[in-house]
């Protein structure tokens, strides 16, 4: 049953760990308006909500609002506590966060989305919700109603990977690479699952399609580079392009990004330089491109110097 069909806030029991707080329980939160926010660390949609969550935490903490983040992992590697801890530090998150590795809180809320926001009044009743990005003024006004105050809305502006998407020019959807959810994979000569195979890049990539070059293994959640100097490419139209990466190798892996066969120059993302050089040193989302100038269809290619790179999903903004 979805939480919106319930009278009161479900239990927060079942978290495997808490950050920034001792374990919190629903019954102890009575008397305080509560915002519960589900997230997972590689989700670009969640990253773009963070300026608002941080602003609300600072602006309304002294008024009695309690914000609780619930990290429920999407990919297997996101179960790692060290990855969550680094994400909290990188995003400046100081409000309480429950690590929901067993999906107990997710299931208690009947949740299905990253990100998802639930607003709960002082009596413990769920009063509003928001799935995905957007509707920030509406959510903040509900916060003020629950607190019994009325004031100007808090300014919030995302920078870098947290910047709002260029929705007017975004034409390419999120693209998963593991075989359980992938689409639009171009592989001349065919492909195999769970077995290393040499792939060749097609002469031309169709819009919103992706391809591999070099020896890769296509696994359930990701593709794994088995030999050095392998690449992955996609044809996209968006201001920003990101890639969720992890590594099987013990050492960081250097990579190079090209746009239409050339270094990105001023269109480089926050995780590469103008020459397209980057370093895979953490398991997270990497911003590879922020287009400088007119947004149009482009071909992005990432080449890794060493084996062991794991690529999970392209996302765009």
Automatic annotation (TrEMBL):
PROSITE patterns: THIOREDOXIN_2 (PS51352). This is Thioredoxin domain-containing protein. InterPro entries: Redoxin, Thioredoxin-like_sf, Thioredoxin_10, Thioredoxin_domain, Thioredoxin_ResA/DsbE_sf. Residues 1-148 form the Thioredoxin domain. GO terms for molecular function: oxidoreductase activity. It comes from the Bacteria. Pfam families: Redoxin (PF08534), Thioredoxin_10 (PF17991).
